[in-house]
């Protein structure tokens, strides 16, 4: 039986409980992360929506900012989490995010996004939503609203300007879990290749010349 993925959810502020509920629906083990040592042994991490200023301040307070800079597994940032990952904050992503780009709370809205070839759009909830203002060449834009990027991937990072945890559609979380599986497969392959490069120990007595 396949071991369930262990996915951390940053739980200092914001919608971490909603993300954890979606992960459990998808068969993953959700781990609430509030301290750096809780990053040990998890396969990926979600930075939830909330208040980006408060999240960034609490991360600094608990030492999670530096711990996350050293964290090598896939990371998924939604809304405020996307802001925290950009060039001007943690600097993990090669993109700049504009806060409250679509307007404040009263300007919250929903939109259908085409993210795959299934023909079934994803219903996305935007609340005081940001957008990606500028992106480097390695950032893949996966969805836009009015020409503004709202879903993107860069290597092991996935970012969304909306709140996928607030709908019954789990496809965005599934996309992240597939990224995590890809990362684990890459690590396993690299480890196997590394082991193959190590010469086998000689058998007892091998290579020893005995002269009568």
Cross-sheet strand order for the largest sheet: 2-1-3-4-11-10-9
Radius of gyration: 21 Å
- The SS-based structural class is alpha/beta
CATH fold category name: Rossmann fold
When the domains are counted, the total is 1
Q: How would the global form be characterised?
A: globular
H/E series, N to C? Answer: EHEEHHEHEEEEEEEH
> Regarding CATH, which class?
Alpha Beta
Percent helix: 25-40%
Q: What is the percentage of strand-forming residues?
A: 25-35%
Low-confidence stretches: 200-212
Q: Overall pLDDT, averaged?
A: 89
The tally of strands reads: 11
- The CATH homology group name: Class I glutamine amidotransferase (GATase) domain
Number of helices: 5
Q: Biggest sheet: strands, sense, closure?
A: 7 strands, mixed
First-to-last CA distance:
58 Å
Tell me which CATH architecture applies here: 3-Layer(aba) Sandwich
How would you describe this protein?
- By secondary structure, the protein is an alpha/beta fold.
- It has one domain (6-99, 131-187): Class I glutamine amidotransferase (GATase) domain (Rossmann fold, 3-Layer(aba) Sandwich).
- It contains 5 helices and 11 strands.
- It has helices at 16-25, 52-62, 64-69, 80-85, 171-197, and strands at residues 6-10, 29-33, 44-47, 75-78, 95-98, 109-113, 122-126, 131-135, 140-145, 148-154, 157-160.
- Strands 2-1-3-4-11-10-9 form a 7-stranded mixed beta sheet.
- A hairpin with a 2-residue loop joins strand 10 and strand 11 (157-160).
- The longest helix has 27 residues, at 171-197.
- Mean pLDDT is 89; it is low at 200-212.
């Amino acid at each position: 039986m396949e071991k369930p993925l262990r996915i951390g959810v940053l739980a200092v502020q914001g919608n971490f409980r909603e993300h954890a509920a979606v992960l459990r629906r998808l068969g993953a083990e959700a781990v609430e992360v509030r301290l750096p040592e809780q990053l040990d042994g998890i396969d990926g991490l979600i930075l939830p929506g909330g208040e980006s200023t408060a999240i960034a301040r609490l991360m600094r307070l608990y030492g999670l900012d530096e711990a996350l800079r050293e964290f090598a597994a896939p990371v998924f940032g939604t809304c405020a989490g996307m802001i925290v990952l950009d060039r001007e904050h943690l600097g993990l992503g090669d993109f700049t995010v504009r806060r409250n780009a679509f307007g404040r709370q009263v300007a919250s809205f929903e939109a259908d996004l085409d993210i795959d070839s299934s023909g079934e759009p994803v219903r996305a909830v935007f609340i005081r939503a940001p957008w990606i203002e500028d992106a480097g060449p390695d950032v893949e834009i996966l969805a836009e609203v009015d020409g503004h990027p709202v879903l993107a991937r860069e290597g092991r990072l996935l970012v969304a300007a909306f709140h996928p945890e607030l709908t019954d559609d789990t496809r965005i979380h599934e996309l992240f879990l597939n990224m995590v599986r890809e990362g684990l497969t890459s690590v396993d392959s690299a480890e196997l290749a590394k082991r193959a490069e190590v010469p086998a120990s000689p058998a007892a007595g091998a290579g020893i010349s005995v002269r009568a």
